[in-house]
Amino acid sequence: MIGGGGEKKTLRLVAKYAQACNLFPGPELAHKLQVLREHCEREGTDFDAIEKTSMYTFDGDVKATIEHLEKLHGLGIQTAIGRVPTNLDLDKLKIIGREIVPAANDLV
């Protein structure tokens, strides 16, 4: 796995060497995926064979988190790596297990 979104070097290295990449979930994500696709074409790499991952932060808003995960999925992100701002917030972790994970499983 290679993480990052540098268009000239990092994404080119992903296309050449990686089986997975972690991309930032910002407004440029669709563009970064297109750049990766173009690098894959130049390298002769199957774009679909590279697992695309991205982070999400769960701040307690279930609806917004599910919408964010749906957007990531729609862009082609296959794995979302969740983060809780305060790792010791067990209530939020329970909500993720009870509400977010089942909703995300329905996307695939």
Keywords:
single chain, 108 residues, alpha/beta, four-stranded parallel beta sheet, 4 helices
Short description:
The chain is an alpha/beta fold.
Which secondary structure elements does this structure contain, and how are they paired or packed?
Blueprint: E1 2-3, H1 10-17, E2 20-23, H2 29-43, E3 51-57, H3 62-75, E4 79-83, H4 90-105
Parallel strand pairs: 1-2, 2-3, 3-4
Describe this structure in words.
The protein is of the alpha/beta class and 108 residues long. The protein has 4 helices and 4 strands; from the N terminus they run E-H-E-H-E-H-E-H. It has a 4-stranded parallel β-sheet with strand order 1-2-3-4, covered by helices on one side. Helix 3 links the parallel strand 3 and strand 4. Helix 1 crosses helix 2 and helix 3 crosses helix 4. 22% of the residues are buried.
